[in-house]
Amino acid sequence: MKVLYKGRPAAVWTIAQEGEQPAWVRRAFAENYLVWLDGHVRILMAGLNPDAATNLRVGAVGTLGGGFAGYGMYVLGYPGDVLDATNHRVVSPRQFARQYRVVDPVA
């Protein structure tokens, strides 16, 4: 599914244990950036988009000295929520409907 957030393309996945997963989601599970825990997903946001400049902008990394402060590293997502890896966000279906525009629902 191709979507736009604030007029820019975004890589999104509707969190679900069953069903289609984009290649980047399968890769993130293989690299343990996404992990199922008791019916929800633990997400290491800094691993989803390893661009350091983007991670600093959105606050997904810890200290500039090289260590992680621990804040903002992990986010929890529940089935039905939408993970936006491009913008480091997890949004509810309602927020997704208001803030995103689906360009191609099939792809």
Topology:
Elements: E1 2-5, E2 8-10, E3 12-14, H1 23-30, E4 34-37, E5 40-44, H2 45-48, H3 52-58, E6 74-77, E7 82-84, E8 89-91, H4 93-99, E9 100-104
Antiparallel strand pairs: 1-2, 1-9, 3-7, 4-5, 5-6, 7-8
Extended strand count? 9
Largest pleated sheet:
3 strands, antiparallel
Q: Tell me the strand order in the biggest sheet.
A: 2-1-9
Return residue spans where pLDDT drops below 50 for at least 5 consecutive residues.
Answer: 50-56, 58-67
Task: Tell me about this structure.
Residues 50-56 and 58-67 have low confidence and may be disordered. The protein has a 3-stranded antiparallel sheet with strand order 2-1-9. A 3-stranded antiparallel sheet has the order 3-7-8. It is 24% helix and 32% strand. The chain has 4 helices and 9 strands, in the order E-E-E-H-E-E-H-H-E-E-E-H-E. It is of the alpha+beta class and 107 residues long. The chain starts with a strand and ends with a strand. The chain is globular.
